[in-house]
Structures are given as C-alpha cells and as structure tokens.
Sequence to fold (427 residues):
Amino acid sequence: MASPTEGEMDNQLRAGVLLIDNLLAQQTVATDEDAYMQILESDFAAAQAAGARLFRSRIASGVGAGPSVLSPILTAYTHHIVNAPERAAQAALDRIYAYFEANSKTVKSRGITYGAIPSFGASKGVLVRLSKDENAYDLENEFVETKTLRCIQDENTGAERFREVFELRGGNAGVDSLEADSSGAIRRNFFAKDSSSSLLRNSSFSQFAIAGQFAAGRYPLIATDTITGWTLDDPTGYELDRNLFARDAVGDPNPTSLAVQTGAVRTVTQAFSVNRLQLAADVPYLTEVWVRPDAALTAGTLTIKWGSATQAVTLSGLVAGAWNSVIVDRDEDLWAASFNQANAEFEFSFSGHDAEVLIDEVYFGTMEPFDGTWWHLSGSLASKFLLDDQIQVTDVFAGSDSKIQKWLWRAYGRYLPHSGTPTVTDP
Fold:
C-alpha cells in the first residue's frame, strides 16, 4: 500500500477522533438516561431500568474503547511521517510531540484558564502552581475542575514544624466514561516544603567553618571563613546572624541567616556537583528564597540563577524588617531541558541594594505532581498552618474544549503542541 502523505495522516487523526467524539455525546446520553429512570412507572419498570442501564453500559464501553481507534493512527503517523521505529502509543506520542514542535505544528488548544490561587490568610505561607511544559505549552492533560487543598496534620497533630501535611483532592469522579468531568483524584501526602527538602547543600547557612566564636547575634566573616557548600565572592562582605532567621526547621540545631552587606555586587554560588545533584528530565525544579531587608530598600536587584536560567527580582518591592518569600516565575525555565548546562551552578547575587539584606532558607527542589500540573507549598514563620486550613483552586474553559487534544488526554493522559490557531484543526 502506498505511504500516506502528512496531510492524509492529519485527516486520519481528525476522522478517528470524530468517530469517538460522535459516539460519546456524553451529556445527552447520561442526562437522557437519568431522565428516563426518573419517570419509570409500570409492572415492567425493573426490566425497563435494566435495559436502559445495559444500553448506557455499552455506550460507555464504546467510548472507553477509544484507544483501539487512535493507537493504530498514532503508530502509522510515527512510521510514515515521523520516520521513527516506536509502535506503542505512549512512545509514538513522544515522537509525534517532538515532530510537531520541530515543525511548528499544533492542534487546537483545550483553552484552559488555570484558576487564581487564593491566600490562606493571616500570613500562612503560599501555594504556587506550574501549568507550562519545557516548551511553554500549557499542561492540558488535566481535568478542568475545582481542586481543594486542606491541612490534615499540623505540628500539634503529627507533622513536623513547617512541614505540615495536606490533602489535595479533585472533584467527584463520574460513574463511567460518559461522565468524565472530574478526576476523583486524592493525595494525602502533600507536604509543605522548607530547607530540609532542598536539593542544595546547607540551604539554611547553619554549617560553616569560622575563626571566631559565634553563639548568638552577628558575626562578621573574615577572609578565611567559609560557608559549607557555598562559594562567596568575598567573605568580608557578609555576616552570619543567629538572631534573625526565617525558620527554625526541625533538624537544624543552629538556625542562621546570611547577611549581605551593601556596596559591591555580592555573589554566592553552589555547583550542582557539590551535592551530586542529578536532574530528572520529566520533573520541574522550583527556587524559593526568603529575604529580609534590614531597612527600606529604594534600589537593588536580587538575581537568581539555576544553570542557564535567570530571574531578576526588584528588591524595593520587599517589606523591610520582615521575611519575604521570593519564588521564581512558574514557566518553561523550571524544566531541566530549559536550564541544563555543563558545570551547572546555583547562584544568587545582590546588586545596587542600599540597605543590608538577609537571606535564608534557599530552596531548590522538585515540585509535586497532581492531575497533570505541578504544585509547591511553603509555610511562613509569621503564622503556621493549622489543622483544616483550606483553599480551593478552580480551573475553567475559556471557550469550548478541543476534540483532538481532549481525546489524546482521555485516552493516554497526553497532549500535543497546541494553539488557538492550530495547523491541524479539529474535525
């Protein structure tokens, strides 16, 4: 048989998706079956109900068999167009995604609006979320629903201080494939993060080798002093502080912060090799640091670097005399494919600051997955999380869901590069 063209394979994908989507008619079948059950009243009501349930079951089974239609199409696409040997659907989708990205091809986006994350209130830390992949596409392999985060263990009920345990759950799942509006997912081991979870060495600056004695207050470093794991541009530009620190995390006997003096540019680095850091390609890495200006700042920049990625933070926006959580933007730069480089380092530097600044609790580590997107929760010193503290995050569709993307997600938990103006349109 002659090999199909790329356009013909695009049409086959559209046609296969349309076949499943037309069978679904999910709201109509589910709603009509429910309405029918409500009006049953006869000597044969039991048989009528059984017949309706059998009909629904067979429709649901047909919808659930969607991969039997799509998998051969994906295999053929990989074989004829991508020219790759993979045959299994998941491996084929890896190749097809890369092919679409390399050739500027897209399908219609699902058009998800990711909900704003509300505050816990009373300065109780912060929750952030990543919804972008390494190529800046939305992570569209998720249920569009309301997700609830609730504290199920605080430090008084079994959790470590600053590492409270939360439950993250989605909406109630439907009874079958005709009702797939909510995930029904639940995770009960979602922890708040502190420096003890960081992949860097000595993230709280509490380990050092210094010439003098230091039990409390401030200690000005001299040229021969070192901070374990870190390289300072000039130790005499820094001080250690044991009175002002962001968090006294469990397992840290000597909570300490690093004070950065004004004047020249101050740079602190740690090579990934110091802690033998090994990156995973399919997990995002977030950076969070706690910063406390001694006095009001009218100028200055904190620049954070991890590998080849860089984020600049304007210091004048931070609250003086208080610990401020600084978290880098949640975008494609959090993936190893975007920031990996030879001899990679983590670095933060201060420049142009007109008041002394303290830094503590430098977190560089993985985010937590849940239903397709990634999450990070960090508690604060000011007001700790307590049992049953709760917030909700609601995602919605900006318009109508796509067809190709929806069925790749439902069948395989995957998505392809996408846009509002796709090159491969929906059927």
